[in-house]
Write a structure and sequence with these properties.
Strand content: 5-15%
Number of helices: 14
Structural class: alpha/beta
Order of helices and strands: HEEEHHEHEHEHEHEHEEHHHEEHEEHEH
Amino acid sequence: MDFPIETVRGKFPALDLTDKGRRRIYLDNPAGTQVPQAVADAVARCLLTTNANLGGYFETTVAAQKVVDDAHAAMADFLGAASPEEIIVGANMTTLTYHMSRTLGRRFKPGDEIIVTRMDHEGNVSPWLQLAEDLDLVVRFLPFDETSWQVEEAALSALLTDRTKLVALNYASNLTGSINRVKALTALAKQAGALVYVDAVQFAPHGLIDVQELGCDFLVCSAYKFFGPHMGILWGRRDVIDALKPYKCRCSSNGLPERFELGTPQIELMAGLTAAVDYFADLGASAGESGSRRRKIAKAFEVSIAHENPLALRLIEGLSDIEGLTIRGITDPARVNERVPTVSFTVDGIVPETIVRQLNAENIFLWSGHNYAWEIVHQLGIPAEQGVVRIGIAHYNSAAEIDETLESVHRVVAMLRQQRS
């Protein structure tokens, strides 16, 4: 089926906003997407009708507990978890990773080894580096291949030892857009007896996740990257998290997942989280899937990918026409399924921020900088204080928006070069 782009765009009020009569083009999506009306409505409805803390017997506290339970069930469907008890909801991916790293640290001893990649967002690097510093652990850095733009199995195998206790991987890069072969990398790590912690923040908006098929032990993502509210979600394999002793208040629940969810939950945001998952399910239903919510979500990604990939190729092809512009990631059309539609580039002799400021002035929203892909820019030799220009497509973006953005990039680069000469 043809992707219903106009119907989809009609669900996102922000896409109709203007500034002094000028349209907005949202290509800042890797940093956070816009939300459908249904998500905002769910948050407001929760605040207005079920606004209470948990654990009581009156009407609103009972209703609030249902909101929390529904959110965990929705994310279990979204990630393919075996049970809602494996879903831990918190402030954001980085906070959850810091918390889980400290909890896992109780199992490690001096000399144990942790592997982190040079492809990850800093939120899946710094928590482990600092844990290693605290506990006198050994950190091994796993580079990505600058030809394939992926972490290769051979490179991981070379680092694994009988002292490796954890491997921290990312599913897709927030700078290069490259998708790693997480299932294969996880299998190698598990053969060595290591736990596997996967950052899926950048993959979650663009592809179906099946945590059971991947075989990893933990996976984290952020709702505000897939059309939901500002919060993070951590999935943990039941047998693994059940054996962990988290840092928590003495009198708080010892049940799952409550013992990992510190303090009063963001109940109204959990209502928005369920609505975001249901938005995907509704999209899948409109594409003809009548089965379970999980199957509808899978269908939604099928049609979304079929819409996003041609837009990514259109963007890559248009950028490749600019002399001196280097795309930092996969550009081969035959490999488009090995990347998400996040495209980063540099231009010889032009600071990325100067390009971005010009496009932002035209109400084309995108980012420059390292974007917390700290290890990537260092491996590639890109000045961290400059970074890249990053354009990130979501499935509510249109071909017309990509064409208009390409015209602006071409014109701005030509203008900046003329000013230099």
